[in-house]
């Protein structure tokens, strides 16, 4: 969620008031159309571009985008590096500023969608907030209800079950999404924050995720997550059934592969008897060829994924029945 402090200051911005003519169209931003938010985004992008050119540290420290995203930017615009990108920004005209944030994204924030950290940094840059104050602005809460907004209408039941049976440290196991013979062991945690709200986090190699919504229905735990380092969402469905003390839980995650194609991944979540330091934990890659001297959880999971078929299901970008007829059925399945 975007903090009420950031939201209020954006709404109060004299420059944006002129752009949208709030006196004529009302002051409830949640009711604004996409067109209004596109105008707002255009003004924000123009000002942020000026600030970045004047203070390149904002992008050299990757405060407005992640390192992976920057690699894509270099490829997209055929640039050689950071200095080249800054020069590219300097040459942009006011008619077409760099797209730091879209009108669609802004509209979603004013309709209670989860806000990405880098996009909040863009808004704080526009507001000219001192870097030392960014965290306090992002974490500002007007009341405790804001902490509940990450959950859906089934809040109370879901929170009670999570807190009672499923809090703890886990490892999430899955085959590497490029279909190589490698198993990934990723940290995964269901924890209670200081406001007594359950928070779900996981991290892969180079990416961190936190839940934007979570609900339990009919023995399944549904989790939607936002990538904190990249413009991406990831969702999970865990088959928790009615087991109150699971050693492991099977499930599936859905995301995009590096080519932007929808991908479904078989997951196994193993609850840890002892807590580990989630902040320091890192995802590990374990090749299928690795041998273990003694029986252990990693060995059992590695054997399972080596024996399992269809650990990954990758979709294709085809749009006609002619394409469908030419595609072998097993081409979409990776085991």
Question: Brief description of this entry?
Answer:
The protein is built from 14 helices and 11 strands.
Oligomer: single chain
Architecture of the largest domain, according to CATH?
A: Beta Barrel
**Amount of helix:** 25-40%
What is the domain tally? 2
User: Helix segment count?
Assistant: 14
Rg result: 22 Å
- Poorly predicted regions are 144-154
Strand coverage percent: 15-25%
Number of strands: 11
Shape: globular
Q: How do the strands line up in the largest sheet?
A: 1-2-3-4-5-6-7-8
What is the CATH topology descriptor of the largest domain? Lipocalin
Walkthrough of the structure:
This protein is of the alpha+beta class. It has two domains: 4-142, no CATH class; 147-334, Beta Barrel (Lipocalin). It contains 14 helices and eleven strands. An eight-stranded antiparallel beta barrel has the order 1-2-3-4-5-6-7-8. Strand 7 and strand 8 (262-271) form a beta hairpin. Helix 2 (14-20) runs antiparallel to helix 4, helix 4 (34-54) crosses helix 7 and helix 4 (34-54) packs across helix 8 (103-109). The longest helix has 21 residues, at 34-54. It is globular and about 65 Å long.
